[in-house]
Amino acid sequence: MNILFVVGRIAFVLIFILSGAQKLMDIPGTATLIGSKVVLPDFVTAYTPQLETATGMTTANMLAILTGIVEVGAALMIAANIGTRAGAVLLILFTIATIYYFHPFWTMTGAEREANMVNALKNVSLIGGLLVFFVLGSWRPSAYRYDDPAAERL
């Protein structure tokens, strides 16, 4: 049972690891995509010139790097069973933002709406799995028997 739990964790987060690594390997492409889709709130845009000056990068480049690091880092936290709840929360927030900015099917019609709704629903399913990891935390199947009352206190 323990090995299946480890394999399941790794299989579940593999999409985030590969997607994040792809973003980090193509920062200009990711930055272009983010720049075309993401509109930052006004309270954030007031600080973007200062951040761009301090880092020497555009806001889109910074967001591309940040999203790649968050995806890979949080997924590895879940896979390694270290800080599982924190990793799950980060990926839940990331996935919600992905639905909002990249799959806004509610603003579309026809085939484009259907395709984006399918992608959004896949992301909702990922959020469901991440919620399970949030509830389980860093629980290990071998630590408690299923009928052990101590397991309920987790």
Descriptive report:
With 154 residues, the chain is mainly α. The chain has one domain. Helix content is 77%, strand content 0%. The chain has eight helices and no strands. It has helices at residues 2-25, 27-37, 42-45, 48-55, 59-80, 84-102, 110-136, 149-152. Helix 1 (2-25) packs antiparallel against helix 5 and helix 5 (59-80) crosses helix 6 (84-102). 18% of the residues are buried. The mean pLDDT is 91. It is found in: Cell membrane. Its main location: membrane.
The value of Rg in angstroms is 18 Å
Give the overall silhouette.
globular
Q: Give the termini distance in whole angstroms.
A: 19 Å
Q: Which class do the helix and strand fractions yield?
A: mainly alpha
Could you tell me the strand content as a percent range? under 5%
Short description:
The protein is mostly helical and 154 residues long. Helix content is 77%, strand content 0%. Pfam families: DoxX (PF07681).
